[in-house]
Amino acid sequence: MPRITRTERLTLSMDKDLKRRFDIVCSWKEVSMSQVAGELIEKWLEENTPPGLFELEDKSPTQGK
After folding, report:
1. What is the pLDDT of residues 29-50, one digit of tens each?
2. What is the phi/psi pair of residue 57, to 5°?
């Protein structure tokens, strides 16, 4: 059974010509602008997230007892 991923909307502001060119190239490559934006954001996060920022740690006071 495929995993269902919840998505949320993100609104971006950009230069009109940049958006037009982005739309044209995405159409030419048969991908959505959302797919490309998601991939670029993932790559940016990989390159810029400090180590350990999103790791879950059990900080309960009973740990180790």
Report:
1. 999 999 999 999 999 999 999 9
2. -120, 140
Whether residue 34 contacts residue 23, with contact meaning beta carbons closer than 8 Å, is answered with no
Task: Please calculate the CA angle 54-8-19 and round it to the nearest 5 degrees.
Answer: 105
> What is the DSSP-derived secondary structure letter of residue 62?
T
Place of tokens 């959302």: 34
> What would the pLDDT profile of 14-24 be if each residue is shown by its tens digit?
999 999 999 99
